[in-house]
Amino acid sequence: MKEFLHGTRQAVLVTVVLMLICGLLFPCLLTGLSSVIFPHQAGGSLITVNGMAVGAEHVGQEFTQDCYMWSRPSAYHYNVYTESEDGRKYYNDGTEFGGLASGSNNYAPSNPALVERVEADMEAFLEKNPEIKREDIPTDLLTASGSGLDPHISPASAQIQLPRIAQASGLSEESLQEIVKRNTAGKLLGVFGEETVNVLKVNIEIAQAMGTL
């Protein structure tokens, strides 16, 4: 019994000490260091305009107006929804809010629902961009990310939207080119990954140029 109590006391003591170190001290240390060394990232990489937060740099948003650049498809519409008078929540396309903040449908390539969704998105894009051919639409404008919150598209996907945006916004394609260029990130260390365009940052600058933000 004495040995049992001794062993139990040691187990409880080790558990409490490790809980304090790993569950409290270490997270607090990392939080403090990150706040000092990387304050922007530690704060959620928020983007502010006129002192007001309008989004996060690494979280996409759903844009549907012709004057803005469109993001990749999202199974959960980038968690953007509206609430009706009866308290029910709906996505921008009128479908009922799924109650999920992120994710994807995880359709297999053989799933007819995937083909149906891609075809619908393709037709919607072609309707608003009639000068574009089906085969010229970049792949990332028809494929959703795993999280459904990807804020980036490829430079090709950005360029192909500029004629529509210019016509709807009244901005010149040259000025839009400059906006896209300012918000294009290169490969990591010049080697890893691909060039990406941050849709949210582009649309913030478009809104500012139009005088709506």
Q: Structural class, from secondary structure content?
A: mainly alpha
The biggest sheet amounts to: 3 strands, antiparallel
The stretches of 5 or more residues where confidence is low (pLDDT under 50) are: none
Q: Mean pLDDT score, rounded?
A: 89
Helix content: 40-55%
Give an overview of the whole structure.
43% of the residues lie in helices and 10% in strands. The protein is mostly helical and 213 residues long. The strands form three sheets. It has a three-stranded antiparallel β-sheet. A hairpin with a 2-residue loop joins strand 1 and strand 2. The longest helix is centred in the first third of the chain and has 36 residues. The radius of gyration is 23 Å and the shape is elongated. It starts with a helix and ends with a helix. The mean pLDDT is 89.
Main features:
about 210 residues; mainly alpha; three-stranded antiparallel beta sheet; two-stranded antiparallel sheet; 7 strands; elongated
